[in-house]
């Protein structure tokens, strides 16, 4: 993984808050999906959002990335208020998400999946009069990204033909193409085999060296190994936050969560 | 022409075959008026371009418009009016029609792209129907009669378009420019983004693309090219009537595109050729045209959903996979 040259190199080691949410709330026709959620996501840290099914984890993701508008609350990205910013703009500001259902472009090649992500930063979005050859200058960077995640031998395959685990890895490579400051991963390891889980954990650890990561994950072993900070959601509210040791000892968490998913 | 296999190993041989086919096709189109009735051929070319323009939206952006007749028929009215009432030369008349279609596309697209799927289709239908009623009421369209007796005039002031062959090559030129524009747009950086929006709109948004703007741009481009087809048709038949702005016309272009194969370059052209030929032969027979085309549509949807060209291409690439 190449280093992001943009962020102030001197501060990289020092933890600082890059994404903040205060009093986040979302109502769906009378049902409160998320309420009073406060979050602080730190640079160069891996932050996990866990909780039982239906706790509102994905809703929080949708709120943070502006795919859903919050009913109340405030979101700041690197000190700038993004509470009312449209989702594509939020992505351009450096807050990039993945999706629970693997989000790839199935009828494009693996290489093209990554190149599509590189086009906009490369200023090749609206050019309808130029040939596809003009995208060739993005190929080296795309290949580099594929190599990071170990997909270099699949570059010419149709993305839809990849195995499930590989699709997820491709999605991560595509996300990294934007060189995001904050990476939101929605269950990046869901449905993966053991080996793939290890690979993805390594990739995440590596990319978190110079950016913030917030991830939803069900696999508690992964969370324990990987994450620096854990926030537990239940019925749309935060019931505990802290490192793994703190959170796993919390009585409320034990009752709400551990009882059902301890085997992981 | 196969969009689905841009990454084949033998890309070069494939490209060479494609250029050869394109060359043969153009040669056939140049020779055609010496063997077939030019007006029939010109009708085919106009509808083929109309379908190709429509496919830019449905096949490559994933947007089903049910109001493309507004751009096709609207351009026909604008061109007919400019040439007949203002005495414009044909090239400027066509340009006005194209420009008018672009403006209409901008207006209709602006509202339609706010919704997705069936709602998008319904909004385009509703706005196109509003345009239809405007055409019924507005004095310049001459209501039920339409604008009749439109002179073909002299291209650039000296090429007499009332000579059928001159007119044919004018239309062929417009057709080739239009189809090349579709091809260029599809195979461009912008086209890649359109395809990614078709494949996964949320993902495109999360990569920072303002999806609505891309959709609107594609919508306007499609409307503009549909306008070129309509403008030329007005000069070919020397009239512009309400038929071209009805919702049935919007349905017909969907039929042509589906029949030929959505998301393929050649499909809409083949589909349009087939439908126009059928209409031509059935016009003189006892059979009601709509029943036949409806039946063909059903067979197409039930048995070969990829369309004629789409099925052939699928066979082709399947054979290739076996050989590997």
Explain what you see.
The complex is a heterodimer of chains A (264) and B (324). Chain A is α/β, with parallel strands linked by helices and 264 residues long. Chain A has one domain: P-loop containing nucleotide triphosphate hydrolases (Rossmann fold, 3-Layer(aba) Sandwich), CATH 3.40.50.300. Helix content of chain A is 32%, strand content 23%. Chain A is built from nine helices and ten strands. In chain A, a hairpin with a 2-residue loop joins β4 and β5. Chain B is built from 13 helices and two strands. Chain B has a two-stranded antiparallel sheet. In chain B, β1 and β2 form a beta hairpin. In chain B, α7 packs across α9, α10 crosses α11 and α10 runs parallel beside α13. The N terminus and C terminus of chain B are likely disordered. The interface between A and B is large, with 43 and 30 residues.
Short description:
Chain A has a single domain, classed as 3-Layer(aba) Sandwich (Rossmann fold), CATH 3.40.50. Chain A contains nine helices and ten strands. In chain A, strand 7, helix 6 and strand 8 form a beta-alpha-beta unit.
What are the defining features of this structure?
heterodimer; A: 264 residues; disordered N terminus; B: 324 residues; mainly alpha; ABC transporter involved in vitamin B12 uptake, BtuC; 13 helices; 1% strand; globular
Strand order of the largest sheet of chain B: 1-2
What percent of residues of chain A are in strands? 15-25%
The CATH homologous superfamily name of chain A equals P-loop containing nucleotide triphosphate hydrolases
Backbone CA Rg of chain A: 19 Å
Please report the first level of CATH classification, the CATH class of chain B: Mainly Alpha
Strand line-up across the major sheet of chain A: 6-7-8-3-9-10
- Main pleated-sheet profile of chain A: 6 strands, mixed
Query: What is the terminal separation of chain B in angstroms?
Result: 21 Å
Strand content of chain B: under 5%
In round numbers, the mean pLDDT of chain A is 85
Instruction: Please name the CATH architecture of chain A.
Output: 3-Layer(aba) Sandwich
How many beta strands in the DSSP annotation of chain B? 2
Summarize model confidence as the mean pLDDT of chain B: 89
């Amino acid at each position: 993984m190449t280093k992001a040259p943009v962020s102030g190199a001197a501060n990289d080691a020092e933890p600082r808050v890059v994404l903040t949410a205060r009093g986040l709330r979302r109502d769906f026709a009378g049902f409160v999906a998320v309420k009073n959620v406060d979050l602080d996501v730190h640079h160069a840290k891996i932050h996990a959002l866990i909780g039982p099914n239906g706790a509102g984890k994905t809703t929080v993701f949708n709120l943070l990335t502006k795919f859903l508008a919050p009913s109340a609350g405030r979101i700041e990205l690197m000190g700038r208020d993004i509470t009312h910013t449209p989702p594509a703009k939020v992505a351009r500001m450096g807050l990039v998400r993945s999706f629970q259902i693997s989000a790839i472009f199935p009828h494009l090649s693996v290489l093209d999946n990554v190149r599509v992500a590189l086009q906009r930063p490369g200023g090749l979005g609206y050019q309808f009069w130029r040939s596809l050859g003009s995208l060739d200058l993005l190929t080296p960077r795309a290949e580099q990204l594929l190599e990071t995640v170990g997909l270099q031998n699949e570059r010419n395959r149709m993305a839809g033909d990849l195995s499930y685990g590989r699709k997820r890895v491709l999605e991560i490579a595509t996300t990294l193409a934007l060189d995001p400051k904050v990476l939101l991963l929605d269950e990046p390891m869901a449905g993966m085999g053991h080996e793939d889980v290890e690979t993805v954990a390594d990739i995440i650890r590596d990319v978190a060296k110079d950016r913030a990561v917030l991830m939803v994950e069900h696999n508690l072993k992964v969370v324990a190994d990987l994450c620096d900070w854990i926030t537990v959601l239940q019925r749309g509210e935060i019931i505990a936050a802290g490192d793994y040791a703190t959170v796993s000892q919390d009585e409320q968490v034990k009752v709400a969560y551990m009882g059902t998913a301890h085997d992981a | 022409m196969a969009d689905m296999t841009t990454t084949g190993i033998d890309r070069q041989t494939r490209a060479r075959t494609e250029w050869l086919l394109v060359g043969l096709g153009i040669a056939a189109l140049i020779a055609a008026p010496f063997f077939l009735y030019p007006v029939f051929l010109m009708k085919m070319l106009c509808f083929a371009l109309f379908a190709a323009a429509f496919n830019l939206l449905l096949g490559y952006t994933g947007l089903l418009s049910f109001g493309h007749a507004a751009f096709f028929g609207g351009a026909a009215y604008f061109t007919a009016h400019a040439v007949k009432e203002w005495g414009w030369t044909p090239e400027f008349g066509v340009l006005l029609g194209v420009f008018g279609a672009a403006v209409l596309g901008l207006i209709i697209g602006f509202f339609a792209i706010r919704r997705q799927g069936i709602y998008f289709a319904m909004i385009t239908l509703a706005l196109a129907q509003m345009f239809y009623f405007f055409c019924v009421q507005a004095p310049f369209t001459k209501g039920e009669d339409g604008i009749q007796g439109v002179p073909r005039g002299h291209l650039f002031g000296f090429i007499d378009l009332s000579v059928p062959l001159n007119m044919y090559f004018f239309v062929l030129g417009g057709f080739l420019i239009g189809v090349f524009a579709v091809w260029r747009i599809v195979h461009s950086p912008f086209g890649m983004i359109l395809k990614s929006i078709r494949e996964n709109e949320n993902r495109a948004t999360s990569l920072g693309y303002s999806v609505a703007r891309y959709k609107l741009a594609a919508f306007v481009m499609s409307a503009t090219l549909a306008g070129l087809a309509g403008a030329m048709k007005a000069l070919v038949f020397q009239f512009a009537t309400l038929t071209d702005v009805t919702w049935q016309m919007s349905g017909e272009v969907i039929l042509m595109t589906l029949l030929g194969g959505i998301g393929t370059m050649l499909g809409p052209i083949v589909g349009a050729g087939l439908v126009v030929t059928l209409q031509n032969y059935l016009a003189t027979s006892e059979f009601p045209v709509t029943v036949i085309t409806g039946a063909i549509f059903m067979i197409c949807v039930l048995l070969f959903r990829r369309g004629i060209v789409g099925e052939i291409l699928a066979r082709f690439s399947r054979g290739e996979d076996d050989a590997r």
